[in-house]
Amino acid sequence: LTVVEFDSKRLAAVRRGVRAGTKIADAVCFARDLGNHPGNTATPTYLATKARSVARRLGLRCRVLDEAAMKKLGMGALLGVSAGSHEPARFIILEHGAVSGKKRRRKPLVFVGKGVTFDAGGISIKSAAGMGEMKMDMSGAAAVLGAMQGVADLDLAQPVVGIVPATENLLDGKSMKPGDVLRTMLGKTIEIDNTDAEGRLLLCAIVGQQGRVDLDRVLIVLEVQDHIGPVARRVDEHVRPDPAMQQVVACATCNRVAPAIAVDRVVAVATGQHVIACAARQAVIAIAALKRIE
Fold it and tell me: In 10-72, which ranges are E strands?
């Protein structure tokens, strides 16, 4: 990349901008690359491996819970979704900056990304048409991992936590069924009506994490369906607290799940089909939001 600037007084600012822009572009490409991978490559374990790699390279703290650890914590909703897959689920947590303890100066912001690496719908199976695109049902997770790479690479002062519940949603003899009852880590029970509504079950695991970290705000990166498209498009244009955003998150994650975790920002909403470019945009908008907060 060659940038030409004739005003010597602006050279320092231009260099800073180029460096920041390059790091953000790298984060976008990372998110896009994850979304491009086929479902038999980008498994929950693969996402966890990528998260660990980014953490080692850029100094993030990374914790990955396996299914045994999730069972011990009582994450019945997430484990219910993963029951139909031979690929084990993973719960990924990335931390940038001092998110707790005496060194903490600010409450952390939290990115949450849905990581369903392939969504066949479970027993409530989707139609065959377009099912190949369901490898991109992890685009929220890709955006969060990309955003966390950008946050660390830019070395932002704001502490940030990235959370990715990762699983497949397939059908098998052990799959959850309509009518089954799952128990969350908060002790709440959920009766399954449609196994293709797995996104809200993954978010239940996030709700359970709320009491473990004193959060400032939660930024959810998710995909919502066309029936709330007009509101979603309006939200997509803003990265600031807005009552309409809470309405969209509540609708997209089913009733009162999202407001229960004090969501006051939605970082980009991909309407309709799960498009790789949306995951990349989400990562950029998330980083841009943090730069404004700084």
Answer: 61-65
Q: What confidence score (pLDDT) does residue 60 get?
A: 96
CB distance 180 to 192 below 8 Å: yes
Pairing assessment for the beta strands 90-96 and 61-65 based on DSSP bridges: antiparallel
Using DSSP, state whether 53 is helix, strand or coil.
helix
Query: Between residues 188 and 195, which one has the greater pLDDT?
Result: 195
Instruction: Spot the catalytic one: 52, 63, 107, 126.
Output: 126
pTM: 0.80
| Pairing assessment for the beta strands 181-183 and 160-169 based on DSSP bridges | unpaired
pLDDT per residue over 165-194, tens digit each?
999 999 999 999 999 999 988 788 899 999
Of the candidates 209, 194, 212, 164, the residue with the CA atom closest to the CA atom of residue 254? 194
Query: Looking at 77-157, which runs of residues are DSSP E strands?
Result: 90-96, 109-113, 115-119
DSSP-derived 3-state class of residue 181: strand
Is 126 an active-site residue? Answer: yes
190: three-class secondary structure by DSSP: strand
CA 103 to CA 180: how far, in whole Å? Answer: 45
Annotation marks residue 23 as catalytic: no
Q: How confident is the model at residue 61 (pLDDT cuts 50, 70, 90)?
A: very high
pLDDT digits (tens, 9 = 90+) for 217-243: 555 554 433 333 333 333 333 333 334
Point out the catalytic residue in the list 183, 188, 200, 217.
Answer: 200
254: left (phi > 0), else alpha (psi -120 to 50), else beta? left
